[in-house]
């Protein structure tokens, strides 16, 4: 059974050119337009340096993979970049089999991608047992 795709953008509050787009669910032919719509809007608004948080992606078919490649090309063509954060599971296997790890900058999680942009952690780690450190 298909897991509905959700896509949400979180622009950087102090930077007009950077944004985080979070994708969760099945990235496949029937739903890939949702990512395209959010990404097109971000790029149209000048946010061409995109961190794509894919930690919640549960499935990805060839259409989803093609959309990632299209978004990578589109950001480069607009003097930006695309980083993938949190590649796991099916998407990780697909990227390994297709050797696309060489095409994308990939970080283990969102905080590592944010560290790339800002040079420091922005998301506080939560130790076992609750509250921030």
UniProtKB/TrEMBL annotation:
Coiled coil start-end: none
Top-level taxon of the source organism: Bacteria
Residue span, STAS domain: 20-117
GO molecular function annotation: anti-sigma factor antagonist activity
Transmembrane regions: none
InterPro entries: Anti-sigma_ant, STAS_dom, STAS_dom_sf
Signal peptide start-end: none
Recorded family membership: Belongs to the anti-sigma-factor antagonist family.
Protein name per its UniProtKB record: Anti-sigma factor antagonist
Organism whose genome encodes this protein: Planobispora siamensis
């Amino acid at each position: 059974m298909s897991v509905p795709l959700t896509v949400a953008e979180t622009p950087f509050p102090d930077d007009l050119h950077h944004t985080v787009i979070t994708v969760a669910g099945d990235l496949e032919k029937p739903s890939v337009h949702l990512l395209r719509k959010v990404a097109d809007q971000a790029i149209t608004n000048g946010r061409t340096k995109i961190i794509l948080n894919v930690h919640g992606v549960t499935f990805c078919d060839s259409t989803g993979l093609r959309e990632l490649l299209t978004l990578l090309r589109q950001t480069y063509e607009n003097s930006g970049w695309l980083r993938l954060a949190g590649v796991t599971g099916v998407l990780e296997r697909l990227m390994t089999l297709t050797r696309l790890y060489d095409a994308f900058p990939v970080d283990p999680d969102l905080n590592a991608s944010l560290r790339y942009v800002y040079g420091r952690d922005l998301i506080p780690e939560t130790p076992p047992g609750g509250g921030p450190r």
